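Design review, sub-item: ligand-bound model
Attendees: FS, YL, KQ
YL presented the inputs for the S-adenosylmethionine complex:
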Amino acid sequence: MGGMSPAACLHKCRGLDLKLKKISMIYRAQSQILPLWKGFCFMTLVIRRSRIHADGCYTTEPIKKGGFVTEYTGPRITLAEADALYEKSPRTYLFGLTNGTHVIDGDSASAFINHSCDANCEADEVDGKVIITAVRKIEAGEELTYDYNLYDGELDDDSPCYCGTKHCRGSMYSEKEIEKRAQAKLEAKNKNR
Ligand SMILES: C[S@@+](CC[C@H](N)C(=O)[O-])C[C@H]1O[C@@H](n2cnc3c(N)ncnc32)[C@H](O)[C@@H]1O
Ligand SMILES: [Zn+2]
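KQ shared the predicted structure:
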């Protein structure tokens, strides 16, 4: 795992406060000037132990509500490649893309962002890039989280959630997926009677 993502560096260097709809266009422009800015980056995201799970990602700077946080960077690989690479890994840093065929194999601090059922960030796919923005004001030193809204897991994998918030669903699956899984479990139980 590497250090801070390029987008986070640019955020710090240029004081950007991007609105989601503008990110895609601006990011493309930024990518072209990235080499010029690389030497001026300050660390704004750090990885530290988390009370949610193992290590987490923290901001050293306050972030405004709606502000750009970082991009979930890493190579795009197919689901089959991900399976082959990580079948036996207990923990992975994969982010599923909406095309349903590819995932991002996280390679920056953003890959350490843990799940929370009452998250301070959200992750959105914009033109194939995964952009993380703040859904509320975040103070310096806070752990960054977003809702994983997991889906399509094995029936025997409940992916328990330890976010500890008042609104915890008890699982990192989406609400819809929790209902779907409960129904599937009921059907499996009835079938075995
Ligand atoms: C991308 S990693 C996040 C970084 C991870 N904490 C680490 O130190 O490698 C995703 C994994 O972290 C764990 N995780 C993240 N959020 C969690 C939560 N709210 N409750 C339980 N486990 C969580 C799960 O094992 C999940 O598969
Ligand atoms: Zn939770």
